[in-house]
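Re: that chain you flagged

S.,

Sorry for the slow reply, it's been a week of failed gels. I finally had a moment to sit down with the sequence you sent. For the record, here it is as I used it:
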Amino acid sequence: KYFLWVKSLPLKFELTLCEKKLLFSHFLIKDQNAPYPFYSLSSIKDGTLFEKAARQDYDYMFFGHSHRKFAEGNVISIPAAGIDEAEYLLIEAEDTITFRFIRIGFDDEE
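Prediction finished late last night. Pasting the structure tokens below so you have them in one place:
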């Protein structure tokens, strides 16, 4: 049931704010028709992710696949929730686009 629901979701979401083109996706898409459409995580370590992202037609690309927080070039990676804290990205768009990571602690026993 949930697998079919997830498969029905789009692989990416594009948005234009403040004349900047933004992409939101699980990770950089290699082949959207492949069973696993994303580049591998090794593309972060060997730098090919950033080379490929620089050639894309987006000002900012937001991913979450790596579970690590970083911003390099036009790639912004949003971390996953941890055991006693979570982190999210706040994007503000007025005249320009700014973003900041916000960490929230929580007690999972409450």
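What I noticed first: The beta strands are 12-17, 20-25, 60-63, 70-72, 75-77, 85-93, 97-105.

Talk soon,
D.
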